[in-house]
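**User:**
If convenient, please work through this fold.
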Amino acid sequence: MVARKFFAAVLAVTCVLSIAPLVWAQGCEEDTEHWYTIIDEDTGRVVLHTCHVVVVGDEFVDPENRRYRVVRVVGHTAWARFVGRVELEAAAAAFYAAWQQELAMAGVATPRRLAQAPAGRLVAIYHTHSDESYIPTSGTPSVAPHGDVYNVGAVVKERLRRSVGLHAIQSWTSHLPHDGAAYERSRRTAMALLRRNPDALFDLHRDAAPLEAYATTVAGKPGAKVMIVLGRQNPNLKANEQFAFAVKSFADKNFPGFVRGIFYGDATFNQDLSPRALLFEMGSYENSQEAAERVMVNFILSIPAVLYGVTPQGRTAGAEAARRAAGEQSGAVSALAWVGIVALLGGAAFLLLNERSLNGVRQRLRKLASIEFASILGLRKRPRGRGDGDGDGDGDGDGDGDGQSGSEEAGLETQGSRDRV
């Protein structure tokens, strides 16, 4: 009995130790009581405030596309070293090339389809930290089971539909409690959403940081910036990063000052499930829900612009170039097809003139098929030799037996007007 209990205890400890790294890998911890401060070790300038637990090796790309890497952490203060500038345009171009190739393989990158996109396309939204809310709006940073972030997500969903006709599904599944295992629970939601085959997957959060870290203005009213978060333990990191760079590149040009930067945390954030999965921090808990919505209804238009070249004002220059290129390619194929048709018609007219009747044309075609074409393809039998007496059938008496030539070739659920999974 003692041995059995001991074995059961060892098994339980082994299971916990084996599962713990997987839970950690999905999403790094957060400290909602005290935010972390990342400082440029050379200048002493504050680079970032965030509730994400910061460890050595984490990185941050700031609004000016300067990349920093954390080299030391003491308590809630981290020091980062400048490692270079990100070539945003080159990375964005790499994303566009790979995405256009994927669309082409799916039969979407044709002139007609490109003119209609994003009709019939789909993106998905969910919320790993279900209780996240805004203090000025709800009076508390945490509301169970559905915090203010769900309301912002609903606004984003409706904005995509009304502005460019892009359909978004939003999961209202709650993944409480807000702990280190939340990403493991939300992983099931993400996988359920991916079964709907969306082109992109977004996990919407709000950060914990001082008000000024995210504060901006939109048409003279308070706004809350967006921070893109990537999991640096994610095998899809390169693809997700290129997507993030393409989104930031478009947003920087069209909505300057709205993107706070890109944080690389020591986790996957479930982004290993898709090459186009991103996490957005929509302001801080010291911003209001309305401030987050004012930025998000603009920033989110970067998604259809990057994926399909569509904006409320029309198509982007890149989309028009892709459409013209697809049109030229289609035109070339059509020209070749017409050349073939003209050649066939010309051949038919020639045969009719020479044979003087349809019956003669039919006989000539049968002859071509049975004799001349077979000879061209090497399938016609050579005549068997006569009077050689050797039985090999090649008429040359060498007995090599080559008288014939040729060879064989081997849930969704619904809550009111909202889609839920």
In short: Confidence is low (pLDDT under 50) at residues 5-24, 319-335, 379-417. The first helix runs from residue 2 to 26. Residues 328-370 form one domain. The radius of gyration is 32 Å.
